[in-house]
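Throughout our pipeline, every protein is held as a single compact record rather than as scattered files. Such a record has a labelled line for the sequence and another for the backbone structure tokens. The remainder of this section carries one protein's record, kept here as part of the documentation:
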Amino acid sequence: MSAPLLIRYKREVAPKLEVVPAASLLEIDHLVVEFKTREGILRAVNDVSLSLQSGQILAILGESGSGKSMLLRTILGIQAPAARVSGEVRMRGVNLIGLPASEREHIRGSWVSMVFQNPMTALDPVYTVEDQIVETVLRHTTITRAEAKARALDLLQLVHIPSPQERLKAYPFELSGGMRQRIVIAMALACNPSLLLADEPTTALDVTVQARVLRLLRDLQRELGMSVIIVTHDVGVAAEIADEVAVMYAGRIVEAGPVATILREPRHPYTRGLLQANVRPRQTERPEAIPGSPPNLARLPRGCSFAPRCAVAEDRCWAGMPELRTVSPGHQLRCVQS
């Protein structure tokens, strides 16, 4: 592969933003994302705080409806217009919440970008692969169209697309699901972001292709030195790629820590339930599903949101929401029993 082109960002990219040194690349502090509904206030993200270091991969684990995707969309700044957002999302010391749309648009792509769940809907079916990558590069940089086309070829080589010259002229519907997902990853990397958000990037792919895409993401993260937040409901995906894991339930983080600690010594009943529901290598017994269903976020039960589904719940679990506390170095837990 030819040497990557140096991206010259537009002069107006973040000139008004006071970038200050920070201990972490990303700091989320008491983030709340809520919607007004007929049933009441629905909190899709409920008082979430976390940090991400440069070069680190964080997996956010949980069932559908736990708030994982909404958290990523809020970081990127593409949450629904009806959403009411409070708290802080700081990147490079800059609070992204409340930034003017023009400044947020310039940050999007150059500071942080996103790989969406379904590559077919993330790509425009009426434009070629080259058209879509070139448009992305031109929108966020000052390089020429010829340089942008060369950049598009470099990116396809970076994500190991076979016959990249031919694929540039192809339309999305002419490519396999795995190849489309690689194209989406290439577009997300077009402007060398420091942070890559990946929303269930392997869900629509078969098992063999999933493994290849995960290896690709890990290799790219190491090669480019970027940070990654990957959302998944699959424990195996978190085990394969993550350095740290945050488990979300009903919009809150209920357990967080190093991936080895979370997988080997889970302390929250919900985390243990997710692990028991996952098919492990050489497993002979049937997986055990978590009983019940996730709660209605507009009608959360009193106390711990997981208490109605928890086999070991006690009276005190219904008394109030437990605080997220540190139980060992780097390991946080929201449960009164451990």
In short: The first strand starts at residue 26 and ends at 37. The domain at 26-333 is CATH 3.40.50.300 (Rossmann fold). Residues 42 and 297 are 5 Å apart (CA to CA).
